[in-house]
Amino acid sequence: MPAKFIVVLGSIMSGLGKGVVASSIMKILDMYNFKVLPIKFDGYLNYDCGTMNPYRHGEVFVLNDKGEVDMDFGTYERFLNKNITSSSSMTGGKVFGEIIEKERDGKFLGQDVQIIPHLTNEIQQKVVEFASKNKLDFVVIEVGGTVGDLENGYFIEAMRQLSLKEKVIFVDVTYVPRLKTVGEQKTKPTQSAFRSLMAMGITPDFLICRTDGKMEEGIKNKLSMFTSLDENRIINDPDMDSSYQLPKYLIEQGFDKTLLALFDKKTRRIDLKKFGKWNVNVENIVRKEGKEVTIAVVGKYVELKDSYVSVKEALMHAAGKLSLQLKINWVESEILEKRKPEEILGTADGIIVPGGFGKRGVEGMINAIEYARKNKIPCLGLCLGMQLMTVEFARNVCGLKTANSTEFNPQTKYNVVDILPSQVSVSKKGGTMRLGAWDMSIRNNDSIAFEAYKKTVVSERHRHRYEFNNKFRKLLENKGLKVTATTKDGKLVEIIEWKDSFGISTQSHPELKSRIEAPAPLFLSFLKASVSKNKLYK
Ligand code: GLN
After folding, report:
1. Where are the alpha helices (DSSP H) in 322-361?
2. Pick from 251, 282, 313: which residue ends a domain?
3. Chain-wide mean pLDDT for the chain?
4. Are residues 354 and 477 in the same domain?
5. In a mutational test of the pocket of ligand 1, which residue from 307, 382, 387 has the highest number of ligand atoms less than 8 Å from its CB?
6. I want to staple 3 with a disulfide (CB 3.0 to 4.6 A). Which of 72, 136, 354, 410 is the partner?
7. Top mutation candidate among 55, 59, 353, 384 for ligand 1, by most atoms within 8 Å of CB
8. 10 forms bridges with which residues in the sheet?
9. Cα-to-centroid distance, 383 and ligand 1 (Å)
10. How far is the CA of 124 from the centre of ligand 1 (A)?
11. What is the number of structural domains in the chain?
């Protein structure tokens, strides 16, 4: 059977959680044992997200296959519990790049190359090929941005054209605001949004209405009257304690049945077993019972909530599994260059130093690590966090006072973190870091890493240009720093640990592989250590 396509659009404004809606639809289809994968379209002209600033655009998510993609991919993977590949990511940069390359190759000789039909045909062909190559039952296509944006117009047009040949369902995520002064929810913006889509030749099959609080009586009826959609096609997506509650809420509204009926696939039964672990962990997150644990995340992009979304999610997954009530304190690391760590970090049961680039705020992160080490507060370093744990140890335990990473001080005599040899001759910035999934070998005795993973070979995702400098390895180890994982060839250090308290950091980003159904092992160990108050967790 040829694949079917579900296109998720967003109206009125950004930030409505289209990614969560697209992920929830995929989760539901997966529970029906359909084979489903996403395509995300982003209108920007960057080839990928690798060169974007996390402070502006949010986290750059990294896939196993080295793809540097939009953070919505994190949501897809966390919901689907599957590894997704870069072929799911279509950007304006990629599609325009390909069409221009084809033109230069003479593939359109004699023609003037246009958005319609050349670009729109190219997009449709790619979408259809993606479905058949992966032997999919469904493709869920999320269109980034808002309907009416110049950047995504040609993509929406391509989907309209696709609907003339293939079975395509359009889902519009829209907003039903509550006006405080009037005290009621208003449908007018959604009515106008619906009309704008109709003017583009698209009639949405579903409206998914974001509301604060549940949708009021009469709203469905009113929207149904103005849009000619059946009431069962108007679905509510209210603010919830956890976005992981959405699939269940959609099912409770009968969305799954109505959707599958449109595709003549109403005979399949939902496989509730697939919801088992998911539900238990989500319930634990929402219930807010259990021991409290406060984690300080000392980062340099904390003001933008989306910059460390995978770290936040990984903490939440682990807290759910361990039935802990999690509180995250986001600490801007520059503050720790001016104020005493105990004033800022005094209430933390555990400290995370996440990834980052550039010099700003780095000394504050080093101060946080020193504070954690000296006060035996569990500490987890991620990528930059590992590099700075190395610098802190070199400076304050080994007495190499000017130790640093050459990223921050290229002149330092004690370059305990240095550029990867493979990076020295790299001049182009896009897609050139050490990226994607790499295996590491873990020491199986006396290591927190082995206690956590219970395996000697694990794979985690990477995104960095600098590394632990092996020239200093002996010296640091002699002073008590433990190297507990390296690449399989032993050449690159992957995990280091303290010996007197729970301190572990990794060159990788384990947060990127954490799922609600499979929390990241290092985050589980870290939270266990944090809640058991500072002891070396075994
Ligand atoms: N800036 C460091 C490097 O490039 C760390 C990168 C990161 O934290 N992802 O190696």
Report:
1. 341-345
2. 282
3. 95
4. yes
5. 387
6. 136
7. 384
8. 173
9. 6
10. 37
11. 2
Are 120 and 182 in the same domain?
yes
Which atom of ligand 1 approaches the CA of 357 most closely?
1
- Residues 121 and 88 grouped into a single domain: yes
Whose Cα sits closest to atom 7 in ligand 1?
355
Helix ranges (H only) for 34-187 are 54-57, 72-80, 92-104, 120-133, 153-162
Domain final residue, candidates 261, 282, 303: 282
Q: Are 399 and 473 in a shared domain?
A: yes
Q: Point out which residues pair with 210 in neighbouring strands.
A: 175, 237
Please report which confidence band the pLDDT of residue 538 belongs to, taking 50, 70 and 90 as the band edges.
very low
- Expressed in angstroms and rounded, the spacing between residue 384 Cα and the centre of ligand 1 is 5
Q: Residue 314 belongs to a domain with what CATH number? A: 3.40.50.880
Average pLDDT over residues 340-360: 97
Placement of tokens 């520059």 in the chain: 334
Instruction: Say how far apart CA 250 and CA 248 lie, in whole Å.
Output: 5
- Which CATH number belongs to the domain containing residue 255 in this structure? 3.40.50.300
What does DSSP say about strands 493-497 and 503-506: parallel, antiparallel, or unpaired? antiparallel
Model pLDDT, residue 537: 47
Question: And the tokens for 211?
Answer: 């509301």
Residues with catalytic roles: 383, 509, 511
Domain that holds residue 124: 4-282
Residue 342 and residue 199 share a domain: no
Q: Which of 365, 382, 383 to mutate to test the pocket of ligand 1 (most atoms within 8 A of CB)?
A: 383
Which pLDDT band holds residue 180 (cuts at 50, 70, 90)?
A: confident
**How many other β-carbons are positioned within 10 Å of the β-carbon of residue 275?**
18
Measured from CB, residues less than 6 Å from any atom of ligand 1 are 355-357, 383-384, 407, 463-466
